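Minutes, project check-in

Agenda point 3 was the complex the collaborators sent over. CS summarized: two entities, 533 residues total, and the question is how they sit relative to each other. Sequences were read into the notes so everyone works from the same version.
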Amino acid sequence: MTMFDRYLAFGRRGVEAIQSLGRATLLLFHSSAWGGPGSAGFSDLIKQIHSVGVRSLSIILVAGFFVGMVLGLQGYTILSDFGSEAALGTMVSLTLLRELGPVMTALLFAGRAGSALTAEIGLMKATEQLSAMEMMGVDPLKRVITPRLWAGLIAMPVLALLFSTVGIWGGAFVAVDMLGIDEGAYWGNMQASVDFYEDVVKGIIKSVVFGLVVTWIAVFQGYDSIPTSEGIGKATTQTVVISSLAVLGLDFVLTAVMLGGV
Amino acid sequence: MSAAEPYVSIRGMSFSRGDRLIYDAMDVDFPRGKVTAIMGPSGTGKTTLLRLIGGQLLPDSGSVKVDGHNIPQLSRKALFDFRRKNMGMLFQTGALFTDLNVFDNVAFPLRVHTDLPESMIRDLVLMKLEAVGLRGAQQLNPAELSGGMARRVALARAIAMDPEIIMYDEPFTGLDPISMGMIVKLIRGLNEALGLTSLLVSHDIEESCNIADYLCVVSGGKVIGFGSPQELLNEGNDEVKQFLRGDPDGPVPFHYPAPDYQAELLSGGGQ
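CS then shared the predicted structure for the full assembly.
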């Protein structure tokens, strides 16, 4: 391969990336609104929320509890050096509500629900189910993509809130029950320092954005996949990789904007 | 629209994939109410032709008129409306929805497109399933069906909305002789009972000649033969005859283009 070929290949990859970004934007444009030929109904939305949300509950709850316990343990070790163990509740809750809740939930969601969405849609494409819908006069974007997109958008903030809640309990379990911190200090300081808008609402905003981005990437990767077993496998991996990076990158941007606005 | 007018009329249609020209200013008419088999060597884009007629692909130039409507110029909404009212398609794999059972698969287009009460939908679905002989399989899941059964269910689903044209993509591939016989009987029977215009893409010369009123042989981006099976077998050009008889050598050569055989052997690989 000559230098020139490499240069060409690099350029081609750049063009391909921009093209697929364009296709992804079109998909979002066409599938974000309800209504249209053979549009999905409310029951489809409920079914999808069950599929991406309820089925992710176990992994989110277990992970949240462990993360909370670790935070309690680590926080106690650090804070007790300064004699400020009483601030442990504040630390655990703020870390979870502002950062770890939305981010960890989004990463787990990408692995659990995102990859499943990509594989499901990719298989529907490979087995010509999407083509069959089109030929029946049913728009697959409206029938298949729209309810999944909205289900992800709705499920993510709920899952993130549950993650944070269970995490705070996990922290309390370690701090209060195991390490003997005063229960009143743990909960009281938390209540005094957590602001509903600054901490809870901003965390929810983050997880709504993550919900949209992760689900968008997952459905696009499935819809745009090469309809072979190899292509679907690759698309599934891409979903997890791209959406994890997108979540972490966006988290920085959102945090910067939110802190800057204070 | 008179009965003599073709149901599908393609004029000057070109279509390419990347740098490869698949169709080059093609003209062809598919007559109303008849079974036409589209045949040709692998990779000539027969399935592509069905997708162009169905509007799933857009030609680079030319017109694709179905029942007087120029498909490439329809808006997205008009295209979906047109497909719903007029078109049915049977895919090679059946393309049944894997999360629905046989009954719900056939009921799907009726439930999406009509406001009929459930009792009427049930009657319609049972009638369609009875027509393909699978009323007894209504509660099975697609995974429990054989290839031939899946295709018959898909056929019941394709005719659920009473289309005017039905397109079959390789309907005979991978079927045992009995299943094949059933599909052949159904295609012919539906065509006569419902007055459908049927297009079928197939490699199977014997079955296609049996079932089709007309054959359309496509090769190199053009239609190289169109007529009744007998006409083509007797009067078609050499390439059409070679294809229909399955001769290994002829206008389509057995050998891939290569340098002279003797000269290459004697050259000793350039060493």
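Noted in discussion: The longest helix of chain A spans residues 88-126.
Follow-up: revisit at the next meeting once the mutant set is ready.
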